[in-house]
Amino acid sequence: MISALRSKDLLGIDPLEPDEITLLLDTAESMRPIAERPIKKVPALRGRMVVNLFLEASTRTRFSFETAEKWLSADSLNFSGSRGTSVEKGETLLDTARNLQAMSPDLIVVRHSSPGVPHMLARHLKAGVINAGDGAHEHPTQALLDALTIRQHFGKLKGLRIVIAGDIAHSRVARSNVFLLAKVGADVVVCGPPTLLPPRVEELGAVATTDFDRAVEGAQVVMMLRVQLERQRRSIFPSTREYFARYGLTSERMSRASADAIVMHPGPMNRGVEIASEVADSPRSVILDQVANGVAVRMAVLYLLLAGRPWEGERDGM
Ligand code: CP
After folding, report:
1. Nearest Cα residue to atom 4 of ligand 1
2. What's the CA gap between 75 and 5, in Å, rounded?
3. pTM of the entire structure?
4. Is 277 in the pocket of ligand 1 (CB under 6 A)?
């Protein structure tokens, strides 16, 4: 099947051209009204099969891919963790994927704790592969849904001051967002304690700082990241209390941002560690809009990879 993107796979934001990002965002925008309908189903991907291979925990990404597949009428197989499968008996990931491939899926959506797993599967399998998060490497559909949310709010991405703050070093969300936002001309600042800023992060296309109060000044978007305690092999800050004092997003800190600034978080949130509840639940928060946009973005990705042409509402049963 020909893809409307330049590849059979979506492995990251880094390889995408700006016109592919625009096509994905425009397609997601035109699919959003499906969520408002009493019957949320179009026949666009009837007869297509998608395998959701989630070998690392997920709530938002997994359920929004499943929702997107249902709304587009695709059939799906859901593989969540290794329990109950032959991975428990020692079957390798590649053997598992080759066996799934033998059932002729059109796409495999994969989340894994090791960077590069989606790329390895894409090289070996005929089916298209979508990266739903690989270690600290990339999370392309998260960056796309974040960009869609920002574009809906400001009508543009270019020229906005966007601060991404927190655990940059362990964050695939930060990497994919920096790639995307730099490609579309936003001014991106990444901020965190020195131990959570990776070396040479500025080569990705962002300005780096450890001063959160200064970073927030005049920002239009403040995107907080979860402190990924499970990926830290050594203690990199003294206590969560101290972390919150220096890098937690409070109402006082948000008052330094632009008057029309929005607050984002990819989830799951550590309330009281990287973000105060009063900010997460405030009118400036677009955190649940991000989740809703996740379904539209994943519909757009599935459709553009499988249909081989841009979305035409009427022809696709809109
Ligand atoms: N944002 C995100 O990837 O959330 P999940 O881990 O719940 O999928």
Report:
1. 60
2. 22
3. 0.95
4. no
Q: Measure CA 107 to chain center.
A: 18
Alpha carbons 127 and 1: distance in angstroms, whole number: 9
Distances (CA, A) of 253 to 63, 211, 217: 33, 12, 9
Give the tens place of pLDDT for each residue, 99-144: 989 999 999 999 999 999 999 999 999 999 999 999 999 999 999 9
Segment holding 111, helix H or strand E? strand 107-112
Tokens of 89: 């008996």
> What is the full DSSP assignment across 243-255?
HHHHH-B-HHHHT
Compute the C-alpha angle 113/202/257, nearest 5°: 95
What percent of the chain lies above the pLDDT cut of 90?
83
In this structure, the dihedral spanned by the alpha carbons of residues 80, 86, 89 and 95, taken in order and rounded to 10 degrees, is: -100
Tell how far the Cα of 55 is from the centroid of ligand 1, in angstroms.
Answer: 13
Residues shown for the chain = 318
Q: Which of 64, 132, 130, 31 is closest to 292 using CA atoms?
A: 64
Q: Which residues contact 279 (CB under 8 A, 6 or more apart)?
A: 249, 250, 251, 254, 263, 285
CB 68 within 8 A of CB 295: yes
Q: How many angstroms is it from 226 CA to the middle of ligand 1?
A: 11
